[in-house]
TrEMBL record, chain A:
The keyword Disulfide bond does not apply. Component of a multi-subunit COQ enzyme complex. Lyase that catalyzes the C1-decarboxylation of 4-hydroxy-3-methoxy-5-(all-trans-polyprenyl)benzoic acid into 2-methoxy-6-(all-trans-polyprenyl)phenol during ubiquinone biosynthesis. GO terms for cellular component: extrinsic component of mitochondrial inner membrane. HAMAP family: Coq4. Zn(2+) binds at H194, D195, H198, E210. This is Ubiquinone biosynthesis protein COQ4 homolog, mitochondrial. It is an enzyme of class 4 (lyase). It comes from Littorina saxatilis. Keywords: Lyase, Membrane, Metal-binding, Mitochondrion, Mitochondrion inner membrane, Ubiquinone biosynthesis, Zinc.
TrEMBL record, chain B:
Pathway: Cofactor biosynthesis; ubiquinone biosynthesis. It is an enzyme of class 2 (transferase). This is 2-methoxy-6-polyprenyl-1,4-benzoquinol methylase, mitochondrial. Methyltransferase required for the conversion of 2-polyprenyl-6-methoxy-1,4-benzoquinol (DDMQH2) to 2-polyprenyl-3-methyl-6-methoxy-1,4-benzoquinol (DMQH2). InterPro entries: SAM-dependent_MTases_sf, UbiE/COQ5_MeTrFase, UbiE/COQ5_MeTrFase_CS. One of its GO terms (molecular function) is 2-methoxy-6-polyprenyl-1,4-benzoquinol methyltransferase activity. SUPFAM superfamilies: S-adenosyl-L-methionine-dependent methyltransferases (SSF53335). One of its GO terms (cellular component) is extrinsic component of mitochondrial inner membrane.
Amino acid sequence: MAACARYSLRTQSLLRKLLCFQTSDVSTSRLGSLFVHRRHASTVNQDYDEEQSDSEDKTNHQLRYDELYPGHIPTTPFQRGLLAVGSAVMCLYNPARDDMICALGESTGHYALKNLRNKMEKDPEGRLILEEQPVINTDTIDIDYLGSLPEDTFGKAYWHFLNKHGFSPDARLPVHFIDDPDLVYVMLRYRQIHDLTHTLLGMPPNMLGEVAVKWVEAIQTGLPMCGMAALFGPLRLGPKHRQKYINTYFSWAIRCGRNSKLLVNVYFEKHWEKNMDDLRQELNVEPAPVPLVRTGQTNLS
Amino acid sequence: MAAPLASRSALLFTSLPARLRVCCACARSFSASRLQNHESKEQRETHFGFQSVPEEEKEQKVYEVFENVAGSYDLMNDTMSVGIHRLWKDLFMRRLSPAPGTKLVDVAGGTGDIAFRFLQFAGNESSRPSTFNQMPNPLTQDFDIKLPKEVEMGLFVDPAESQVDDSSSSSSDEEGDRLRPGSRAATHVTVCDINQAMLDVGKQRADKLGFTSGISWVQGNAEDLQFEDNSFDAYTIAFGIRNCTNVQQVLNEAHRVLKPGGRFMCLEFSQVTNPLLRSVYDSYSFNVIPVMGQVIARDWKSYQYLVESIRQFPDQEEFADMIRDSGLRMVTYENLTFGIAAIHSGFKLRR
């Protein structure tokens, strides 16, 4: 081992591992830390006694599900990277795999979510959302009430959107792969207002509409998943839609994203009764230049 | 589970004879001595991967795992082992080398990989599709000789059993099973699995691959098989025994249903012998496999359970001892791919 002193610390620890077959020191080398779960401050003390008695396998590889929030699956940095690559490929291969889009967003979105959270904290409405943490599902929203509203209101437009395409607000998947508890709600909120963004922009849930919404979301949230979907989504467009995309919707979506208010900061649940045009004006959302109507020929979900 | 617990226990209390007692946890009635056994069993815990669960729950949890993964089971096997599981199973069948006329029970046989290989190896012309994994006859491939029918088919004509009727066998050349009269002659595999979803996938595959006869699909519990004693020539269990709650009980049942002279063969994940390889294998298992499970099968937790359950299973020597404890003899094992998998073999000796 004295001969190792000539080499750098990292090489030394790798050599030590190879020659002495130690696996318990994995966390001390930077390369090894890719394969270890991050221990959070709240759980470190609890783990201490267990680590002494459990086998090596378990301390390195034991997963505690739902540790930070219900549905939480802890991941190592390597796993997050692999998940990002795997889900990106699967998304392109089969865009109907909504869980892959979610996994891609969660595994690549750490810095973007931090940034987004900062932006939410600076805005008064955003701060209110972070405090109250409203969740959109059939328990918190009365769908029938939305149906009873007048035609030109935002709530009624959302009701039309859900009805026409057979969606339910319950269908949004929970968050699994985010290891920072502060960012979990931010991701959840972003995911839940996706349908509301569709309604606000007037975009149907076909491939073209989704790409347009993803451009707006990419510019506003900075999530890599949105950026990737916006860049690679158009590859799957048919010729007619591609023309429309190039001529009209691409530039409009960019304009919308840049000029309108950050939609994650909008407390949509308080605006059901508002007139749609008024809401769009308030949020500085430019209505679609040519209304896009889904004919049902390209179906995503 | 029809009546709710409260009314069920009320009924029990009113109709109980004096000598019976009721278990407080599950409201079942027992005699006093059996109640003691039952209550001590209630508190027993076992492992489910690295988690600890009550014994009764494990079976249900394992059932749910396989119900979830049944649809993408074969694709995931190919992806996780980069196709190597096919080589393992081919070698497994070569080690068993079943002769035509063998009655096999393939326990935890789910999607049928072992059953199909068995039929291809030992099956009758009718049950073997022409395109599935044809192998040249090792006895004659280099020489131009004609061997007697029994030798060519690899048949063992047991002088202790009823005599072969020469007149009936000389007429047919293709069907080796004619050497034995009646239904005992047909090569047959009974695929037994506790999970109906896996059996359904297996049946679909059998139809697609053309295995139409000589195979039956039965739902059953490896710890409590519904077959008679001494009813099978061979018993196989591939990548299934690790998931059973009580491994020794499964081995005991295997001993029971085998005929004297019958062979037990188990293909299962085991402990890697080389420490360096072990750490590479562990890294691969824990870092890559659950992610693959999420991407391909939409199920992280089932594949996390899979890699954890491999670590919880006894190593080669310990498992060999457990096999000996069940009464099987001539127990040997062979490591595959440095110990990632192992084939254990044992015989039920004739008295």
